[in-house]
Amino acid sequence: MIRSLPDKAARVLAIGLSIYALCWVLFVIDPHVYRTTFLLVALLLIFLTTLKGRTTTLKGRTTLILLTVAAFGWPLVDRAAFVYRAATPTTVDLVAGIVAIALVLEATRRTVGWVLPATALAFVAYAIAGPALDRVGLSMVAHRGYGPERLVGTLYMSLDGIFGVALDVTATYIILFTIYGALLEKSGAGQFFINWSLAATKKVSGSTFSSAPGRTVTLAGFLLGTVSGSGVATTVMLGSVAWPILRRAGYAAETAAAMLSAAGIGALLSPPTLGAAAFLIAELVGMTYLQVLVMATLPTLLYYLSVLLMIEADSRRLGTRAVPVDAPPLGELTRRQGYHFSSLVMVAALMAWGLTAFRAVFWAMVAAFGLSFMRRETALVPRRLADALDDGGRGVLPIAATTATAGIIVGVVTLTGLGLKMAGIIVALAGGMRELTAIYAALAVWLLGLAVPVTASYIIAAVMVAPALVKTGVPDFAAHMFIFYYAVLSEVSPPTALSPLAAAAITGGNAFRTMMLTWKYTLPAFLVPFVFTVSDQGLGLLLRAPLGDTVLATATAALGVAALAAGLGGWFFGPAAVVERILWTAGGLALFFASRTADLAGLMLLTTALAVSHRKWLASDKYWRTD
After folding, report:
1. CA dihedral defined by 312, 314, 320, 325, rounded to 10 degrees?
2. Contact of 272 with 344, CB cutoff 8 Å
3. In a 3-state reduction of DSSP, which class is residue 323?
4. What is the pLDDT of residue 70?
5. Residue 565 in contact with residue 317, Cβ under 8 Å?
6. Distance (Å, rounded) from C-alpha 187 to C-alpha 372?
7. Core-most of 70, 208, 251, 294, by most CB within 10 Å?
């Protein structure tokens, strides 16, 4: 393949960024130096590989690259004294800081769109215009106001802004898991997971499976998601293989796209990789990443249970058909390529043994590299290994830009005290009620998700919304997990519904209808966070409660998910009438409130719904048919 000079430079930088991250695991590098150089290389890559607006010209790209080297090279050149001037920046510091902030915003615009940079600029304006807010009747959010010197000192010269915790997590945890996912993909793990799902869900007799391929899509989405951590990437990978099967089964383009995106979005929730925001939970709450993985286990299973049952209900209601699939027997496939599962298990096992997350994934990468040579066609020879490192370096670019911009917002929120003010407003509006505060918090995070991606949505909400939940008695880890799950809704909600958009592009379906159907398939799962937020018993879903509460909370939540699937999907023994759907839905909602009274009410409603559905089924011709 003939590459242009910018392409060659980008490949070298991407591979170099991946190797640099791997070296960080093995050697001690000063945090300020590492974060600065990491972002410097990431921005250079973005400006080399994304062409938008006037800067598509060579001159425009050259200007951006030179400004990036100057603005982010300055802290490295003057490192000894740089951080100590944060309170009194020099003229050079001010100019370099303003240029650096502008470059971060431009890089973010190029990777995730203009909304997040515009939001960051609004926060910067808020930091400057604090006193004026009091004069226009907004005293609740007014403050003393901060000039360019203080803003540059906080956002550029300290570790509280651009180079804060969010970027640190990207440069350490996230890029390592991105490289790990790329290594697995290049070694054939992604295709194996899809093939294994096909083999696991087909009928015992013959090569036909009768799940109206929904079960295959759900299982494959889960397996791919464990290594991907990206809803869009999983959706696209899954769609390229599964869409032809879904089409032959009789699914409409929009329905198939919704199934693909719902299964793909689960990658953001699936251990051991999860989405980028999950790594931030560990840092902000002060817990190990293994603890976050443990807390995510049951909600993830409930998510896929919800998607599976919703898809199953639609499959039966739409009358889709079984499809012949050329897949080897499950046992044979597992014997030949089951080694792909081993590195996934290794990540969790090493963390349980006491290794940090980044060391665990490093050794899992070493294992994945060695195991790739089990088959000649998947061996990570130098060229394929270089491709994986290239993909790993490029894969982290949108997250690097997003977290750097989110650092600007977090820096302003911390500097002005806006987070505590917003928390106080939410609690006051809710009258101090935990349930109402949770509803307002969910709405706030959802609205954020309409405008910004998952990671940015979580970071902003973590400093502005989480304190409100904590004030009403929600444990901090539960508050952050609640926000994390609702931030994931940005993958479903327009206009940032990237996974449904990608799926619709693959199937040729209508994008808006795909988004709405994806909402339908994922809705029961996104009520699950209320279980571990509104009551102490519900903390069992995060495995942070006594065993009895854990078992009860899990059982009632699973039953609630199943009931909502029947109510929203319109199918149980057969097509459900309006009264049945109301009973199933009401009973499911009651079971999400982890209390004895709510559980009893929910069970009574479900018993009634079951009796009505069963009686209707007994009276149908299908029940008595003997052919």
Report:
1. -40
2. yes
3. strand
4. 95
5. no
6. 5
7. 251
Tell me the C-alpha distance between 488 and 499, whole Å: 11
Give the DSSP letter string of 86-137: TTS--HHHHHHHHHHHHHHHHHHHHHH-SHHHHHHHHHHHHHHSHHHHHHTT
- Measured between alpha carbons, how far is 128 from 76 in angstroms, rounded to an integer? 28
Element (H, E) at 208: strand 208-209
Contact 372, 388 (CB under 8 A): no
Handedness of CA 175, 179, 185, 190 (dihedral sign): negative
CB neighbour burial string for 46-69, b if at least 16 within 10 angstroms, e if fewer? bbbbbeeeebeeeeebeebbebbe
Count Cβ atoms within 10 A of the Cβ of residue 5 and give its class: 0-12 exposed, 13-18 middle, 19 or more buried.
Answer: exposed
Instruction: Tell me how far apart the terminal alpha carbons of the chain are, to the nearest angstrom.
Output: 60
Distance CA 298, CA 345 (A): 17
Helix 511-522 / helix 289-318 crossing angle, nearest 10 deg: 110
* Residues in contact with 18: Cβ distance below 8 Å, sequence separation at least 6, in sequence order: 175, 179, 389, 390, 392, 393
pLDDT for the residue numbered 495: 64
Assigned token pair, 395: 């894969």
Alpha carbons 307 and 66: distance in angstroms, whole number:
48
Cα–Cα distance, 20 to 34 (Å, whole number)? 9
Q: What is the value of pTM for the model shown?
A: 0.81
Q: Which residues pair with 576 in a beta bridge?
A: none
Q: Which two tokens stand for residue 127?
A: 């930091």
Could you report the average pLDDT of every consecutive run of 10 residues in the chain (627 residues)?
Answer: 75 95 90 94 92 63 93 88 87 95 94 87 91 80 88 91 89 87 85 81 49 73 76 78 81 87 83 74 85 88 87 78 70 85 84 83 90 88 92 90 90 85 83 87 82 80 88 91 84 73 84 85 83 86 87 89 85 78 88 80 88 73 47
- Alpha helices in 355-464, H assignment, sequence order: 357-371, 382-395, 397-416, 418-429, 434-451, 454-464
Greatest pairwise CA separation for the chain in angstroms:
88
Q: Which two tokens stand for residue 618?
A: 């007994």
Distances (CA, A) of 556 to 182, 309, 567: 38, 16, 16
**Are residues 410 and 155 in contact, defined by beta-carbon separation less than 8 angstroms?**
no
Assess contact for 105 and 121: CB atoms under 8 A. Answer: yes
CB 359 within 8 A of CB 25: yes
DSSP string, 460-478: HHHHHTHHHHHHTT--HHH
Q: How far apart are CA 191 and CA 207, in angstroms?
A: 19
Tokens of 130: 């604090």
